[in-house]
Amino acid sequence: MNRSKAAGRKPRADALRNRERILEVAKQAFTRSGANATLDDIASEAGIGPGTLYRHFPTREELLQAVYRSEMEKLAAAERKFAQSMPPIEALRAWLLLFVDAIETKQLIAPVLSALIGDPKKVFAASHDQIHEALSALVKRAIKSGDIRKDTDPMDLLRALVGVAHVATSPDWQQSARRLVDILITGSRPIQ
Fold this sequence. Notes:
Elements: H1 3-8, H2 13-33, H3 39-46, H4 50-56, H5 60-85, H6 88-117, H7 121-144, H8 154-167, H9 173-187
Helix pairs in contact: 2-3, 2-5, 5-6, 5-7, 6-7, 6-8, 6-9, 8-9
């Protein structure tokens, strides 16, 4: 088989499983060890050889970017799942709680990416539209159902949660952010 045909094929199922496993293990490793997580340790923990990891992610930068993008894609996809399976206000709440977890991932990855590539904004900017669209859809649905006020701005909700994460000085900022989700939901209810 010539290379051009091989390049156009879909990845094999085992290659996709390896990639997903690498991303999950890498997220945990970077959460635990930050920039000190070694790619060889990640490969070992994922149950693959270093060559397999390097075939998928030739550099630390590519792995970090892939971890971040994967987390943002999961967050965006959760909007559709929640919208199909939950009442509007519960879907919005569940998604905002997932967003708190995503903030943690971004906080862990941003300093490492900054050290490697100087400016991680291009990586983060690519996910911004995806996240904004997902949250906007959930807010519109909750407004339409009458669960929240018509003047609720999706970006205000995100700014409040990101703000808590940026000013937090304690390691338990996530608990504060989770409580803030309920405060934001309650504060967005229609005035009666």
